[in-house]
Amino acid sequence: MSRLIVFCLFALAFAPVAHASDQAGLGAKLYAKHCRECHGPTARESEVGDIGGLSLGTVTSAVRAGPGMMPTFALTSEEIAAITAYLARLSRS
């Protein structure tokens, strides 16, 4: 019984890390498809500057409203969150 408890606690401890990694992986694919052409491979090469550390709210607003010359994109909230996770990973590297 104690082995089962230890296993469950161990699995729970690493579940968010795995989810964040999966989310950033999806975000990388979505970024390459929708964002890379204008914002560059590291999200630092655009006229608006470094977008790597933007909040979920800021990314959501930009994707849905398309500020300036940026087009809008029909992405789900989950897809926008994945792009934001990827941008956060880029800003740390």
Protein traits:
single chain, 93 residues, mainly alpha, globular, metal ion binding, heme
What is the fold's blueprint, element by element?
Blueprint (H helix, E strand, L loop, with lengths): L1 H33 L1 H4 L16 H10 L11 H16 L1
Helix pairs in contact: 1-4, 3-4
Largest sheet: none
Number of helices: 4
CATH hierarchy, class: Mainly Alpha
Number of domains as seen in the coordinates: 1
Query: What is the helical fraction, as a range of percent?
Result: 55-70%
Span from first to last CA?
42 Å
Percentage of β-strand residues: under 5%
Q: Write the CATH architecture name.
A: Orthogonal Bundle
Overall, the morphology is globular
- The H-and-E topology, N to C, reads as HHHH
How would you describe what is shown here?
With 93 residues, the chain is mainly alpha-helical. The chain has one domain (2-92): Orthogonal Bundle (Cytochrome Bc1 Complex, Chain D, domain 2), CATH 1.10.760.10. The chain has four helices and no strands. The relative contact order is 0.17.
